[in-house]
Amino acid sequence: MQPIDFAGKQRPRSLPDRRFQTGQILILSICHFIHDVYSSFFAPLLPLLIEKLSLSLTQAGFLSTVMQLPALANPLLGSLADRTSVRYFIILAPAMTAIPMSLLGLAPNYGVLLILLFVTGMSVAVFHVPAPVMVARLAGDRKGKGMSFFMTGGELARAVGPLVVVGAVSLLGLEGIYPVMVVGIAASVWLFFKFRAVSITVHKAQRNGLVETFRQMRPVLLPLAAILVARGFMHASLATFLPTFMASETGNLWLAGTALTVFELCGVAGVMTSGSLSDHFGRRRVLLLCLVGGPVSLFLFAWAGGWIRFAALVVAGFTLLSTTPVMLAMVQEHAGSSPAAANGMFMLISFMSRSAVVVIVGFAGDQIGLRMTYFLSAFVGLGALPFIMLLPPAARSRAGS
């Protein structure tokens, strides 16, 4: 049977569709935005949940751990996605995330809260592991551009989600926000009608196991792991501790919050453009530019003041947050017959490095202060540069290396 393209028409097996299918990718990006809006509800709701259920800070911290725990299964989820049509994972995820997150306010006890957040964590993993695979197929030869579209939805959601849930609580109360789940359910229905005929599977004879997939992906994953760790110090310093640093420097909480907003919005701009740039100029060149600009701008941010500090923050947000679409495109270019499993491995590495590095940065901040920690993080960030040179050239791309 001949493969069917995303418009529902048959096409010859020897002529894969290399078009950039803008409409389909925009739908996935919008649904990524809707999905991640719900997954960002947790932090704004946490103080209210602590008050309602009389939780200790240890219990509250464990809630976050439980929500992130399913990320450890990302490679297994990816392997499963390679053996079924990934459309089912993607179609169901917005509803699977919206329902438990909208029910948090109704949780009668800590145990139910744990269950709701664990289900959310599973849904988040189920969506984010295979979705880039579908985007890569829909993007044809412009995988970087496709990843930029897709990741822009997620970046915007992190800024909008807290505002959505705070507004819902203000209007409906903590226990009354459950009707907001309807948007997530509607997103899943929309995805069903748009993608029910889309089948992205790997032929049985071509599938690789996890060990073989890792062996195949090792030249890409090992340098990326080192890059993620080095970049993670800079990202954690700003994304996690920027408001704390600005508040201690200026005593102005409003300015501290504004600084984080500027950082995130510049990251959105970076995500929107970096993938397309890497299609034209090469993945490694764009990574090199970002991972030179990131440490330099972080150093200037910690060292200078006034407008120089603001300009450095703009550059830091643009460069540090814009590397993910490039790395996702690179993973998909080299994934061969196990694209979802390869993406699951990349996401597991990203999760583990990010989780570990945040703790180290916090410890350093306690010992030497945040300003010196920023200098240290910028220095560590430069350690990513040699590993960029170890990355293989693009496997199938119009871009150069």
Q: Which CATH class of the largest domain? A: Mainly Alpha
- Name the average pLDDT: 82
Structural class comes to mainly alpha
Distance from N terminus to C terminus (CA atoms, Å) equals: 36 Å
Key structural traits:
disordered N terminus, 18 helices, 0% strand, Growth Hormone, Chain: A, globular, 2 domains, 401 residues, mainly alpha
Descriptive overview:
- The radius of gyration is 21 Å and the shape is globular.
- It is mostly helical.
- 76% of the residues lie in helices and 0% in strands.
- The protein folds into two domains: 22-201, Growth Hormone, Chain: A; 210-390, MFS general substrate transporter like domains (Growth Hormone, Chain: A), CATH 1.20.1250.20.
- It contains 18 helices and no strands.
- Helix 1 (22-39) runs antiparallel to helix 7 and helix 13 packs antiparallel against helix 15 (323-334).
Could you give the topology of this structure?
Blueprint: H1 22-39, H2 42-53, H3 57-68, H4 74-81, H5 87-102, H6 110-128, H7 131-139, H8 143-172, H9 181-195, H10 210-239, H11 242-250, H12 253-281, H13 283-303, H14 306-320, H15 323-334, H16 339-368, H17 370-381, H18 385-390
